[in-house]
Predict the 3D structure of the following.
Amino acid sequence: MKNTAILTHDKLRAAVEKVRAQIREIKAEREKLEDAPPAKSEALARMRRWVDEVMAPTGEVSIQPFVSTCDPETARIMGWAFGGPSQLVGRTGIDSTLCWLFGNLVKERLAAAINDYYASKATEGIASKERETKLEQLSARLLELETEEERLICSGEEAGIVILRRADVDPRALAAVL
């Protein structure tokens, strides 16, 4: 009798550990997928949209900062508004002005940097839709495994075998078994 209980106990612990190993694998795969860069084509498109948006002036071109009798340092000390080059195109930030003046060059340089990044990572990244689909599949599989783990733990409890639960278990897995 004692030998059977030990065997059952050992088999149950082994089954739980097997499931937990699969859970660790799924979580590692999910984390890797979440950290993977977006597809290079998406990164390049995002950059081009940003530069195009920033290139378009939102106000009239102004040379006021350059023809004013007040120098920028005095304006700063007195607390007067003096936006400097960013006032040229009615936007905040020098990046707007640079994109407005040299947008195509900015695109070329950023595209080269993006291409270098993906070359150094030896990847083309992962498309947003593909990432989303894979993450959903991994999450569904993870929930299945955690539910299986909880079923094993509950069957152990019924047999008087205590197996501690993981602190990070999905509450839905617990609820599915109860």
About this structure: The CA atoms of residues 26 and 151 lie 19 Å apart. The chain has two domains: 1-36+130-178, 37-125.
